[in-house]
Amino acid sequence: MVSVDNNGNSSSLVQVRGLNKTYRRGGEQIQVLQGLNLDVDKGDFVAFMGPSGSGKTTLLNLLGGLDVPTAGTVSVAGDEITHMSSGKLTEWRARHVGFVFQMYNLIPVLTAYQNVELPLLLTRLSNSKRRQHVETALSIVGLAERIHHFPRQLSGGQEQRVAIARAIVSDPTFLLCDEPTGDLDRKSADEIMALIEELVSQHGKTVLMVTHDPVVAARAHTTLHLEKGVLVEASKSRQNVTAGGVA
Amino acid sequence: MKFSQLILANLFRKKVRLLLTLGCFAVALFLFAFLAVVKKAFTGGADLASANRLVTINRVSIIQPIPLSYRDKIARIPGVESVTHDNWFGGVYQDEKNFFPQFAIDPEKQRKVFPELIVPEDQWNNFLKDRQGAIAGARTAKRFGWKIGDRIPIKTTIYGTNSAWEFVIDGIYHGKRPEDDETQFWFQWDYFEERVPERLKGLTGWYTVKLTSPDDALRVAKTIDAEFANSPYETKTETESAFAASWAKQFGNIEFLILTIGTVVFFTLLLVTGNTMAISVRERTGELAILKAIGFKDHSVLFFVLTEALAIALVGGLLGLALAILAIPALGAALNGLLPNLVLSKSMIAVGLGFALVVGAASGLLPGIGAMRLRVVDAMRRI
What we know:
The complex is a heterodimer.
Chain A: E1 2-3, E2 14-25, E3 28-40, E4 45-49, H1 56-63, E5 71-76, E6 79-80, H2 86-96, E7 97-100, H3 112-117, H4 127-140, H5 156-168, E8 174-178, H6 186-203, E9 206-210, H7 214-217, E10 222-227, E11 230-235, E12 241-242, E13 245-246
Parallel strand pairs in A: 4-9, 4-10, 7-8, 8-9
Antiparallel strand pairs in A: 1-3, 2-3, 2-5, 5-6, 10-11, 12-13
Helix pairs in contact in A: 4-5, 5-6
Chain B: H1 4-11, H2 15-48, E1 53-58, E2 66-67, H3 70-75, E3 80-88, E4 102-105, H4 110-113, E5 117-118, H5 121-129, E6 133-137, H6 138-144, E7 151-155, E8 164-175, E9 185-188, H7 189-195, E10 203-204, E11 206-211, H8 217-227, E12 235-239, H9 240-249, H10 254-283, H11 285-293, H12 298-334, H13 346-373, H14 376-382
Parallel strand pairs in B: 4-9, 6-8
Antiparallel strand pairs in B: 1-11, 1-12, 2-10, 3-4, 3-11, 5-8, 6-9, 7-8
Helix pairs in contact in B: 1-12, 2-9, 2-10, 2-12, 2-13, 10-13, 11-14, 12-13
């Protein structure tokens, strides 16, 4: 279940309370997020929408421990991450977060296998265990036959699949997807979304996704709209979303 | 090492740039090795000099002779264990380009004063019996393909007639240490004495004095010079190392010259490699941000950048030193024995590699710290 108006305690996987983020640009203070509350349960698939500059990516960065809020707290699986040191936060990210970015962000000099293996290099897994995990992740995204291909030898959709395999290989608590289909054609975007849906429905993953595309957002269980730094619950089921936008 | 694939992949990311950077290190280390052996050849005499030997020359200049009669007076000074005398011959073997130092020596005392230069006993005994006998250094013998029993004509350029003096190779000496000078050519003092013009008979070029203890060096040197003060042939006595150092200084301040060139080369190398590493890191800002996003710590990122820089420095440095090891003997041959000790020692190799690694670390440090401090959010915004 997803909620944006709870400001008390809950047992949700992700719990955000009174989240503020202010940037200083020159002498000017820009408030991006204002007192934001959010609860996301395990296995939820949430899409964040909103105009450019509304703070979607900022919210995702705060949820993923890539940035620190000006005020408020973010707790994930009981860990309050907002007061963690940089080093602890890095360790926490390695254990709990799988990132999927719009531009895939694979390391171009590494093969698909090596890219997916990267998060596992931070664990104590043996070579054979790492291989097993990487092959499983790549087979889940349908690229078992392409493990020795470099990113330049793959299509955009395939690159994003590798990026998703990299995000899930260490079995993180949740996935954060920032415009995962933003650089893909419609067909590839559909395939990627089908894959993300499969991760949620069959593998029980929790996915928080930022997108501009209402069709993509419609595949999520819940779509939340960011307006002037505040979250608004736009729809709770895909029936409420049409191809033209939020109903 | 589980990160080796990532480091290697990054190293080989731009092969041309990698080759050029390796080449940069290789050339610098080659030049370093070259300058080091040349410096050693000029100044090495001082390092090799025995602490318990003095050299006595004419106070005016080494090219002015001193009387042979001084020998016994020097030998009687307390603290002197042995004394020998030598004279520069300066002859030409076949062609002026075939330079090597030739000395008329005192066979009686030569081996006592210079025990580090080894002649096999049987060869030495043959030499003592042969008035025209000569002992050649192993390098010179090898250079001209001389064997025991060969007759060697050497044309004199100093002592009167422009005729060739004929010598018979009775022995070949080797140095105990690799740096020892094995280019000299020794022949019998008596043969020299009988053939020089009358005005030069009874004179010698210099004395080498072996002391019973190095602690006596200053006292004995002062005593020798005092003994012959106010005579027509006043002397100047100094330790063998001081003599070798002042000999090297005749060619100018080689050490300063080499140090200056070396410093310029390494500073330039630092700028070039530092710039290359900075560009390489800047190009990878997004990738480094991703690594940090997925859980690589700041010090891991610094480690990757530094390891790359050190690997380039090490491989480039080894390449340059390997080239130097191959090229230095050829250089020695090309110089026709003009510089005796072109030896690239283990300590020079270690110092060279040390310099390369310091330059590598310095060039990787700033970009590495920059990468370490990189904020993921800022870097992702720039992609």
